[in-house]
Amino acid sequence: MNIAVCVKRIPKTAEADIFIEKDGRDIKKDNLVFHLNDWDGYAVREAVLLKEKHGGTVTVLTVGPEESKEVLTRCLAMGADKALRIEGPAVQDSHLIAKILAQAIKGQSFDLILTGVQAEDDGCGQVGISLAQMLSLPHAAIVNHIEITGDRAKVRRELEGGIEEAVDLKLPAVLTIQTGINEPKYISLAAILEAEEKGMEEVPLEKLGFTSNESVEATVDQVFFPPVGKMAEILKGNPDEVVGKLTEIIKKKTGG
C-alpha cells in the first residue's frame, strides 16, 4: 500500500505573544517557533501504522519555503520513506495549494492520500476536500478510524454531537485525518539525526506548471484580535425563575 501524506509547517501561537503586521493582513512570524501541524502529525502516524500492517511506502509532501524541510525531516523520523518539498507561491491560498499538490500527485500510484482535517494557523480545512475533487477521487473528512480490506477502506468519521458515520470507500481515496485517531509516537533525537541523512526531493513550481506569482482565488483583507466582551452571566434560581430572566434578556437584546 502506497500512501501520500500532505503536511504543513505552521507557527506555534498558543503560548506566544502575537502581533499583527502593519498592513493588517497577517501576524508577525519573525520570532515565532514553527512546527508540524498537529492534525498532519496524526495523518503521518496513521500512514506509518498502515504501512507496517499492509506493507508499501509512505511519501510526505509539503508546499512551502526552504524552512519546511524541518517538518519533512520530522516526518521521515516518524517512519515516512520519502519526502517532497514544493517551493511555495508568494501568497498561500488553500485552493491554490490543493491545485499544486494535485499536480504533484497526479499520475502516481497512491492507494491513499491523507491530509490533516485542518491547519492550526488558519483553521481552513479545505485542502484535503479540494484535493479529492481535483483528483476525481472518493473522500471522507474528519476520519478517526481506518480499516483496509483489499481495495476498499472502511472508515469512521466524526459528525456533530458525538455521532459517527461509517463510510465504505473504493481505493484510491482521499481522507482528512482527525486528531486522536492514534497514539503519537515519541521521536528520538537519534531518529531525527538519521532522518537528516535521507534524501529529500525538491521541486520548483515551474516544473509543475505554476509560477511563483500564481494568482490566488482568496485573499485576506484584515487580521484582527477578537473584541473583548463582557463576562458570562450565570442566572440563578429555580427553572421557572431562570426562564423568566432569560426571556427578559432576550427581549431587551432583540427589542421585543
What Rg do the Cα atoms give? Answer: 22 Å
Q: From the 3D structure, determine the CATH topology.
A: Rossmann fold
Main beta sheet: 9 strands, mixed
Overall mean confidence score, pLDDT? 89
Proportion in β-strands: 15-25%
* DSSP E strands, number: 11
CATH architecture: 3-Layer(aba) Sandwich
Shape: globular
Subunit organisation of the chains: single chain
SS element count, helices: 6
How do the strands line up in the largest sheet? Answer: 9-8-7-10-6-1-4-5-11
Explain what the structure shows.
The chain is of the alpha/beta class and 256 residues long. It has a single domain, classed as 3-Layer(aba) Sandwich (Rossmann fold). Helix content is 27%, strand content 25%. The strands form two sheets. Strands 9-8-7-10-6-1-4-5-11 form a nine-stranded mixed beta sheet, with helices on both faces. A two-stranded antiparallel ribbon has the order 2-3. A hairpin with a 2-residue loop joins strand 7 and strand 8. It is globular and about 65 Å long. 34% of the residues are buried. The mean pLDDT is 89.
Summarize the SSE layout with pairings.
Elements: E1 2-6, E2 9-11, E3 34-36, H1 38-54, E4 57-64, H2 69-77, E5 82-87, H3 94-105, E6 112-116, H4 127-135, E7 139-149, E8 152-158, E9 164-170, E10 173-177, H5 189-195, E11 201-203, H6 239-254
Parallel strand pairs: 1-4, 1-6, 4-5, 5-11, 6-10, 7-10
Antiparallel strand pairs: 2-3, 7-8, 8-9
Helix pairs in contact: 2-5, 3-4
Task: Briefly summarize what is shown.
The protein has helices spanning 38-54, 69-77, 94-105, 127-135, 189-195, 239-254; strands spanning 2-6, 9-11, 34-36, 57-64, 82-87, 112-116, 139-149, 152-158, 164-170, 173-177, 201-203.
